[in-house]
Predict the structure of Ubiquitin carboxyl-terminal hydrolase MINDY.
Amino acid sequence: QVSPGLRTPRLPVWLCSVSGRHSVLFGTDSRLLSDWKSERIFHLYFCSGQQEQTRTAHLTIDTHSHHWEEAQREGSCSPGKRRPALEMAIRTKWAGATISWNGTDPFF
């Protein structure tokens, strides 16, 4: 039998399989589970457990940004607009969200 704490987590946690690798995407704000208004700008953390990831990636998700704002931050040297698989996975829940990696190099 599964404990109630495992069936209903107190913090948002997603187990991911991105590019064939298992990882964890989680937040530290419990309001993400119950208050849709908190989904405007929020933080998620990503841990792949892979040797090449030396620290947990801190991501800022903005669900109400505009596509031209993201284009200005990226600059003109983004050939083909290739997106990291993790960003595409996050956008399955929050379509059109802008994702900031806060100084961490995005993983492809």
Remarks:
- The first strand starts at residue 13 and ends at 18.
- The helical segments are 4-7, 67-74, 85-90.
